[in-house]
Specification:
With 125 residues, the chain is mostly helical. It has one domain. It is built from 6 helices and no strands.
């Protein structure tokens, strides 16, 4: 899953949050932008399965960003709404890879143990 949108969204939110912290009134919003930006950037280090589990958080931060950091919000929402397509595409790729791996096993080019190990790696088990 391409995670660059999350990273860019987080960076923009953090930078804007830092600038907002210059004034006392905007510091309240700025602190939340920094927290949200850091959270979004942290999600880039997660596996695809973990990111899917954080889907609601991504949506929430993206909506918050829309009000105070429009570009970050739009990038977050783009990631959110394309996330299912990316996960679906990856699942299709898993099936194709496992079928190819099974053919290689049937041809005797790899052992049953190698097949099982590579299949687990593909499935991220």
């Amino acid at each position: 899953m391409e995670k660059s949108l999350l990273k860019i969204s987080g960076i923009i939110a953090i930078v804007l949050g830092i600038f907002m912290c210059i004034t006392i009134f905007l510091a309240i919003v700025g602190i939340f932008l920094i927290i949200g930006g850091s959270t979004m950037m942290g999600y880039t280090k997660l596996s695809d399965k973990e990111i899917v589990n954080k889907k609601n958080s991504i949506l929430g931060w993206s909506i918050f960003f829309l009000f105070f950091s429009f570009i970050s919000g739009v990038l977050g929402l783009i990631f959110y709404f394309t996330m299912d397509n990316n996960v679906f595409q990856k699942k299709t790729d898993y099936v194709t890879e496992i079928k190819k791996l099974d053919e290689i096993r049937k041809q005797g080019l790899i052992s049953e143990e190698e097949y099982t190990a590579k299949k687990k790696k593909i499935l991220d088990i």
